[in-house]
Request: fold
Amino acid sequence: MRNEGIRIDDALDEVFRIAREADIPAEISHLKLAGRASWGRMPRVLARIDFGAGGGARRDADQYPFIAGATSLDATIPTWAESGGWDSLLVRLRDPATRARIQAEMSTPPTGRRGSTTRPAGAAAS
Reply:
């Protein structure tokens, strides 16, 4: 999915639309929510997956059976910084001002971008 943060509803809409248009089941692998702003939203996300089986289309999701994930650090890099691939990212990282901007956005992700802090679906918010 394209987003595991506060824009997960948009990502779910896209998955369900593709499945419906292709007449195939929707399978979401390693379902999770990223970023503090998403904490506590899993019940609603699960309800969307379960709701009416998508007008007849099958919807399934799985989740790791672990209390911690293993998402790579690059999952927190802003999308714009990765544009053009790894070579372009490395060029950007060599520029001190751009590197500082990337670091700032990784520390405090802007609204709508996948977050850098994840926790298991059942864990309590702090």
About this structure: The CA atoms of residues 92 and 98 lie 6 Å apart. Residues 8-61 form one domain. The longest strand covers residues 26-28. Strands lie at 26-28, 59-61.
